């Protein structure tokens, strides 16, 4: 009886269609679940909110001594100079953790299309950062309003209110995706974090040192505006944006690093 039923089970198993493929939405859902179940995600996002609101409150309280030319929106956007590092590190850890644990093998086995993996991971990181920065911005706007008083944000002037705030959301997402791109490129947590911090924080400081070198070295100082933080500072400083260079610069860095990471992922085994 057992011997006779074995071929039947074998035939039924072999007749199962093998045309099913993992849809992109399911890949995206799995990436969202991965990030949501990591403690490092909530620590990173919690620190981002705490720094954003805390520094905004300090700047708003001190703004009374800054003079009348201080744009009130800068109290909300200025903390980005610190939270950008947390966003970049969060993006780097989102992928390097998979390389350190070997989970990347399971990911690529389930979804062999490397481009789909990179895109899903990028969307997941962007969504987490977008929601976090939106929440922290709303809290900062409400909590700093009593401190700013009559010198508060003029919501009727979009160039000095909603535009810089929207650009700060874009910048923070870009910083996170730059870290993610470095993670795909280097595939090591310490290396990816070092590269991210170097690009976002160290490089602008180094270029600014050449201001003491005279006019012959000003071209190096001017290069800072083509770094991610230089472009973000221009977009979030308040006032009308005269050209598209900062926007293109801010978008080019995450797109470039992710494209390089995708090409490396295609040519190397996990």
From TrEMBL:
Pfam families the UniProt entry points to: ABC2_membrane_2
Keyword line: Membrane, Transmembrane, Transmembrane helix
Top-level taxon of origin: Bacteria
Chain ranges passing through the membrane: 42-62, 82-101, 122-145, 165-185, 197-220, 244-265
Protein name, per record: ABC transporter permease
Species this chain originates from: Microbacterium memoriense
